[in-house]
TrEMBL record:
InterPro entries: NAD(P)-bd_dom_sf, SDR_fam. It is an enzyme of class 1 (oxidoreductase). Pfam families: adh_short_C2 (PF13561). CDD domains: SDR_c. The keyword DNA-binding does not apply. It comes from Paraburkholderia piptadeniae. Belongs to the short-chain dehydrogenases/reductases (SDR) family. This is Dehydrogenase/reductase. One of its GO terms (molecular function) is oxidoreductase activity. Keywords: Oxidoreductase. The lineage of its organism: Bacteria, Pseudomonadati, Pseudomonadota, Betaproteobacteria, Burkholderiales.
Length: 236
């Protein structure tokens, strides 16, 4: 089997934006390693699924090993996995804090470190994080301290990675969404959530997928936090 096709690892790949990203990369003839806690095996021989907690380094190791052993390389890593718990700051529990750090931060650190080590062998690669525009523009009534703490950290880490690896052929970028129509949000909430955006409506999963695909195909773009948020980060 030729290993000239590009290979992407997608975390949080079982539903929502992650599942749409898997489809989009397969449409572009990438081979895919898809990771999620509850993901099922795929009938597509060009998709390998890894079930497990992305915050666990052993799961991250397994995913990168599968990419290399099955497909011969790692070209792109999409750190899509993330959790959001909206609570007043003083009502977060220690368990909430640990869960959010595990997925949003540990889940980024372990697999990114391992994937970049593989990318260095080919002197090329791309790491992309899905963050949130709440980092830049907090919204009254949407308590988001832990999202800002963790996803804001990923924005900063993205810029730092971009500079550290700029001369090695490895790029780092992020897509910073507004509120997106996905299984995470019940349809009856869409009107109210849409009103939180200057454009007056929520985004579609395709908006995020298109932004990710653009950044993955943009060799002169690195260190970019691309806001796909209906104007939220610009103001009201």
């Amino acid at each position: 089997m030729s290993n000239s096709q590009k290979v992407v690892i997608v975390t949080g790949a079982s539903q929502g934006i992650g599942a749409e990203l898997v489809k989009a990369f397969r449409e572009r003839d990438y081979r895919v390693v898809a990771i999620a806690r509850s993901i099922k095996p795929s009938d597509d021989p060009n998709i390998v699924t890894v079930a497990g907690d992305i915050g666990d380094r052993e799961v991250a190791k397994r995913a990168v090993s599968e990419a290399v052993e099955r497909f011969g390389r790692v070209d792109t890593l999409i750190n899509n996995a993330g959790i959001f718990i909206a609570k007043p700051f003083t009502q977060y529990t220690a368990e909430d804090y640990a869960s959010i750090l595990n997925v949003n931060v540990n889940g980024f650190f372990h697999i990114t470190q391992l994937a970049i080590a593989e990318m260095e062998k080919n002197k090329s690669g791309h790491v992309l994080q899905i963050t949130t525009s709440l980092v830049d523009h907090a919204i009254s009534g949407v308590p988001s301290v832990l999202a800002s703490l963790t996803k804001g950290g990923l924005n900063a880490a993205t810029r730092s990675l971009a500079i550290e690896y700029a001369k090695t052929g490895i790029r780092a970028n992020a897509v910073s969404p507004g509120i997106i129509k996905s299984p995470m949000h019940a349809p009856e909430t869409h009107e109210a959530l849409g009103a939180l955006h200057p454009v007056g409506h929520m985004g579609e999963m395709r908006d995020i997928v298109d932004a990710v695909v653009y950044l993955d195909s943009a060799p002169f773009v690195t260190g970019e936090i691309l806001h796909v948020d209906g104007g939220q980060s610009a103001g009201h």
